[in-house]
Write a structure and sequence with these properties.
Blueprint: H1 27-49
Length: 56
């Protein structure tokens, strides 16, 4: 099936640059980054140890 897109509209919200003068980042972002990193490590390990041809 062929799909045509005539126009795509996207809203981009840039992240603010945090000056190094001591302004702290929101803790929610650091928690989210840790969760994403742990999920990525888990997925890499799962793929590495999965037996090929078996439904683990």
């Amino acid at each position: 099936m062929t799909t045509r897109v005539e126009q795509v509209i996207s809203e981009v919200i840039p992240e603010q640059d945090v000056p190094e003068s001591g302004e702290r980042r929101d803790e929610r972002w650091s928690v989210e980054e840790r969760i994403m990193a742990a999920t990525a490590r888990h997925e890499r390990l799962r793929l590495r140890v999965a037996a090929e041809g078996f439904d683990d």
